[in-house]
Structure to design on (207 residues):
């Protein structure tokens, strides 16, 4: 009996169906694993950004390092990159890492309501957090940009009148701008034109 010149499986009708079932099951399992990793990376970002923003930013002195949670996230993103490039195909890698910056930027802005307090040093550290996270995201997503989050926190350098005018023009949500004003309101600077509540009410008129 001549040997086949190509690899083959000696299957009959029944074993062929069983084999096809195994292949289908493995394909489905692979897709499930990819979806799980896709979700895990995004939840990982949300968790550590949330942790970074649940701490006080009333620092009373300058800090040259970002928040430890941001540093941990940066390390983890590098680990993700090493593992993914080793074990998944390029199109799968693209699926897993696409639009991570959108998740991170939205979290950095919307979780601002979790920050207990902030001073000028804390504001500078938040801007540093954004810059470090953006650079870390570029490891896995080269086109990552956190411009919107950076713009949001740089608004904190303006007075409340400026936050209202510039913030609404930039398209930030009213609730997010209220959170920012709560953090940066300065009675000596802003008090002559109203209380924090007055400014927040004024902001609501532009909703």
């Amino acid at each position: 009996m001549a040997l086949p010149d190509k690899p083959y499986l000696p299957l009959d009708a029944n074993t062929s169906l069983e084999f096809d079932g195994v292949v289908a099951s493995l394909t489905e399992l692979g897709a499930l694993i990819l979806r799980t990793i896709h979700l895990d990376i995004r939840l990982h970002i949300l968790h550590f950004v949330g942790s970074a923003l649940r701490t006080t930013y009333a620092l009373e002195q300058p800090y040259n390092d970002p928040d430890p949670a941001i540093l941990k996230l940066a390390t983890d993103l590098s680990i993700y990159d090493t593992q993914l490039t080793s074990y998944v195909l390029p199109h799968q890698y693209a699926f897993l890492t696409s639009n991570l910056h959108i998740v991170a930027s939205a979290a950095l802005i919307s979780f601002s309501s979790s920050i207990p307090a902030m001073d000028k040093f804390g504001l500078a550290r938040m801007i540093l957090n954004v810059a470090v996270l953006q650079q870390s995201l570029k490891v896995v997503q080269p086109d990552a940009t956190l411009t919107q989050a950076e713009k949001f926190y740089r608004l904190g350098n303006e007075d409340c009148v400026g936050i209202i005018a510039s913030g609404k023009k930039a398209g930030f949500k009213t609730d997010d701008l209220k959170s920012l004003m709560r953090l940066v309101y300065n009675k000596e600077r802003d008090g002559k034109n109203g209380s924090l509540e007055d400014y927040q009410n004024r902001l609501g008129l532009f909703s």
Q: What stands out?
A: Residues 13-53 form the longest helix (41 residues). The two ends are 82 Å apart (CA to CA). The chain has a mean pLDDT of 90. Residues 131 and 150 are 8 Å apart (CA to CA).
